[in-house]
């Protein structure tokens, strides 16, 4: 089947002038991946690994100094294929909310603080659904109830709601038009664990009901373990590993993925976790070769010279690491074992 989203060799850089010198920050550097229908795809990686820039770029929300250098982002919606960089602003506006919805980091940014919630629905959703007047109000009311929200939230101002409520309202707003593709950037990061669970369950419920695909971004690996079907790991602007979430957790292959998973707290294990030495690289001057090499416990000579390509090591599993991909035989049986 043709994937719903295809991202091909995408490069998106920030072009800045610092102290009179032109700098380019390679926030997304040669990323290729695809997302099918009806799946929840997670993007993980520490902050400033390029996750937010990547999804902004996928959503077509690019403003200077961010610019797409090369590559393409293609959606295969039910009413036709769209190459996101060939769309006029008007065409982009037409797919927003109805085909493609973007839940940004911090729900306050989408909810107008000086207007009642009702008006946010009218502003964003009304132009994209067939219902008007009372029928429109009924559509919103039913959708809120489906998401376990009282209809009375429509009369509230954003500041009158708790963080968890606001986030649920933001999800309601993003899904009321029944989008085929939902992009969510750290939607639960500011919430406490109990509220977070509720919001995630709601998102999963609405995804199943609508049959939408979701691209979900968070640095929180525990959230990925509970929510996503497939997972992509980003490090310093590059995708370094991809596979079914279950497989990645059972057997992480890339040294960075192994670090992310081993640093998760385990029940009944009180030993302090060893952190990763060093800090994430400066993307204006990334390390040569494999960008992870200054922090990698397995680094060998070639790692300093050559960037490792993404290689398929098992069905649905890709990894970018010289050491891992040099011995696929060692990797393949181990992969079988975990199934
Ligand atoms: Fe480590 Fe080399 Fe693999 Fe990069 S390519 S993750 S430096 S072993
Ligand atoms: Mg971010």
From TrEMBL:
MF terms in GO: ATP binding; ATP hydrolysis activity
UniProt region (Disordered), positions on chain: 263-286
Q: Which GO terms describe its cellular component?
A: plasma membrane
Q: Principal localization?
A: membrane
Gene3D superfamilies in the cross-refs: P-loop containing nucleotide triphosphate hydrolases
- The name under which this protein is listed is ABC transporter ATP-binding protein
BP-aspect Gene Ontology terms? peptide transport
Family statement drawn from the similarity comment of this UniProt entry:
Belongs to the ABC transporter superfamily.
Task: From the UniProt record, list the coiled-coil ranges.
Answer: none
Q: Which Pfam families match?
A: ABC_tran, oligo_HPY
- Signal peptide positions on this chain: none
Do you know which NCBIfam families this protein is assigned to?
oligo_HPY (TIGR01727)
Is Cell inner membrane one of the keywords? no
Q: Which residues form the ABC transporter domain?
A: 8-261
Instruction: Look up and give the membrane topology term.
Output: Peripheral membrane protein
What the entry lists under CDD domains is as follows: ABC_NikE_OppD_transporters
Give the record's keywords alphabetically: ATP-binding, Nucleotide-binding, Plasmid, Transport
Organism field? Chelatococcus daeguensis
Q: Where in the cell is the protein located?
A: Cell inner membrane
